[in-house]
Amino acid sequence: MINNNFDDYLGLLNYDFSKHKYIVFVWNSWSGKSSYIKKLVHENKSLNKNIIIIDEIFDFFDFIKLFFQFFKKEKFIVASHISINYFYIFSFLWKIKYIKTDNHHAKICNYLHCKKMAYSKDVVSKYIEWFSSTYTDIDIILEKYNWDDFDEAFYKFVKFNKVTLTWNKNNN
């Protein structure tokens, strides 16, 4: 549900985090991790205001630097670019909520709906497969091919722009 230009497509604003010691947001840049964290801290009643926020762990070395911090009493919210697998070790000790911010169809469908764009679920699936579900890439596509139909804009963009998929080792 969209609230003040914020789309709570994961339904976390009213989620009860009181039993979780760690909340880990994972995915790549521009996926909404920091925006979601900021909104949660200000609007979710179950989060203690003394929670520690670690925004942007980029690699394994960042993770190692923070490893011993995770044993403190405080609760943590972490935004991470590294694989969720690094955090599983903590699951044996504490309850952790893992959240992937960038693989949701509802996020893209809500965004296109707000832009009053026609679209099909098949093309949204292809878009997510190619670009993940970032608003930034939609805006780039629509900047070049701004029609009322996202399907047509997406196919034109892919056809006339040399786009290749590459594997990112940090985000499986």
Description:
- The chain has 172 residues and is an alpha/beta fold.
- The chain has two domains: 2-100, no CATH class; 105-160, no CATH class.
- The protein has helices at 33-43, 60-67, 105-114, 121-131, 135-144, 150-160, and strands at 2-3, 6-7, 22-26, 52-57, 76-80, 96-100.
- It has a four-stranded parallel β-sheet, sandwiched between helices.
- The model has no long low-confidence stretch (mean pLDDT 81).
Which structural traits does this protein have?
172 residues, alpha/beta, 2 domains, 4-stranded parallel sheet, two-stranded antiparallel sheet, 6 helices
Largest sheet: 4 strands, parallel
Our estimate of the beta-strand percent is 5-15%
**What is the total domain count?**
2
Compressed to H and E, one letter per element, the order equals: EEEHEHEEHHHH
What structural class results from the helix and strand content? Answer: alpha/beta
Q: Round the mean pLDDT to the nearest integer and report it.
A: 81
Map the helices and strands.
Elements: E1 2-3, E2 6-7, E3 22-26, H1 33-43, E4 52-57, H2 60-67, E5 76-80, E6 96-100, H3 105-114, H4 121-131, H5 135-144, H6 150-160
Parallel strand pairs: 3-5, 3-6, 4-5
Antiparallel strand pairs: 1-2
